[in-house]
Amino acid sequence: MAQLVKIQDYVSRYQIDLARYPTQFVRLKKSQWDRVKMQWISGEDITEWQHDDNDTNIESEDKERFAFFKKIFSGRQKVDEEDIEQVDVSNELMNDEDAIPEEETTLTFEPRIVYAPQSIHELKRMFKDQFFHFQMKWASSTLREKSYVDPRFMRDTLLRTLLLNLPDNYLVFYYPILKVKKAPIELDVVLLSPTECICVTVLEAENQAVYVGNSERFWVKKVGTKDLKVLNPTINLSRMESVLTQLFKQDGVDMPIRKVVLTRNGYFDYPGAPYNIQMVDHRNYGEWLDQLTKSSSPMKHMQIRAAQTVLNNVQTTSFNRDIWQRSTPLVKE
Q1: E strands along 196-284, which residues?
Q2: Bridge partners of residue 199, in order along the sequence
Q3: pTM of structure
Q4: pLDDT digit string (tens) for 207-244?
Q5: Are 169 and 152 a contacting pair, CB within 8 Å?
Q6: Which residues make beta-bridge pairs with 260?
Q7: Cα dist. 307→60, 137, 311, 327 in Å?
């Protein structure tokens, strides 16, 4: 499961200490999955898990991670154990002794299972779906601050797909808003793997649309018998590349940038596409995503530095929790 570092201008837990939180995130996920899996295998009633959406209760350091369970199955068949993640995510900036103690974790994860899963695969799917919601909280709150989350992100199928399918060693920036020379600039999707930065511009409006590409300012989008103009997505990609290249250069970050135009539900017709831009449509989307998921390298020092460079230049809009109901938002560069 990829890590959601920043979404738009929401306050992010990763802004507190980027060297620690990626490993803490994975350690928390693994420990909870191991516990959930063993309870399921031993025949516990996991439909009795307690879940509280109240932020105060969730973030209490003394709160128990899980409620204890009742037995419902006297003899569940033995199943093959399946790990939630196979990727080594230990990074070069952090030693084991630097790990954040469990009692210092300011946001715990407690899954809420509404029915008893019948297989380990179903259990894993339910667990990951719950963890997606947990990720959204990490990417929109800290112990002292919180941001309003647009409900559309909870229903965003691309965001969910990226987070649930990419390995833990990917850091995801989802339409982050940066401050460059005091001007806000919204990027599209930025994926930081251990070895490269992938900029993704998405075209997903109508199903089965065909995008006829060229080097002009506008492309033609064919939907049925209609021809419509859409802004050339490579323009935005080039802007993203330019902004990130400038920031990386300032901080001495050496990381290649790859550019991708993506449509999961449409097609590209662009025989003369630029060699440095990958066109991913409905025909090769599965293959492209599968290639990304095969990244087994541990997190790298340069990857963390690249992510920190982006975080150093983001805009953040949030509220102090103690004045959540009566204050104006805090906007920070």
Answers
A1: 197-202, 210-212, 218-223, 226-231, 257-262, 267-269, 277-280
A2: 190, 259
A3: 0.81
A4: 899 999 999 999 999 998 899 999 999 999 999 999 99
A5: no
A6: 200, 278
A7: 29, 19, 6, 30
Could you give the count of Cα atoms lying within 13 Å of 285 in the half-sphere of its Cβ?
A: 18
Inter-axis angle of helices 157-165 and 285-293, nearest 10: 40
Tokens at 275, concatenated: 């060699």
Closest of 162, 166, 211 to residue 189, by C-alpha:
162
Write out the H or E segment, with its range, that includes residue 52: none
Identify any residues that bridge with 183 across adjacent strands, giving them in sequence order.
Answer: 180
**Dihedral, 61, 15, 55, 173 alpha carbons, nearest 10:** -130
The rounded distance, in Å, linking the Cα atoms of 220 and 226 is 10
- Scored b (16 or more CB within 10 A) or e, 204-240 reads eeeeebbbebeeeeebebbeeeeeeeeebbbebbbeb
Q: How confident is the model at residue 247 (pLDDT cuts 50, 70, 90)?
A: very high
As given in the structure block, the two tokens for residue 291 are: 């290639």
If pLDDT is split at 50, 70 and 90, which confidence band does 329 have? low
pLDDT tens, residue by residue, 52-108: 344 434 333 333 333 333 333 333 444 444 555 544 444 444 444 444 443 344 445
- Give the chain's end-to-end CA distance (angstroms, integer): 29
Q: What kind and span of H or E run contains 308?
A: helix 301-311
Q: How far is CA 14 from CA 81, 98, 139, 276, 333, in A?
A: 31, 16, 8, 31, 15
pLDDT tens for 282-326 read: 999 999 999 999 877 889 999 999 999 999 999 998 888 665 455
Res. 203: pLDDT tops 70: yes
Based on C-alpha coordinates, what's the Rg of the chain?
21
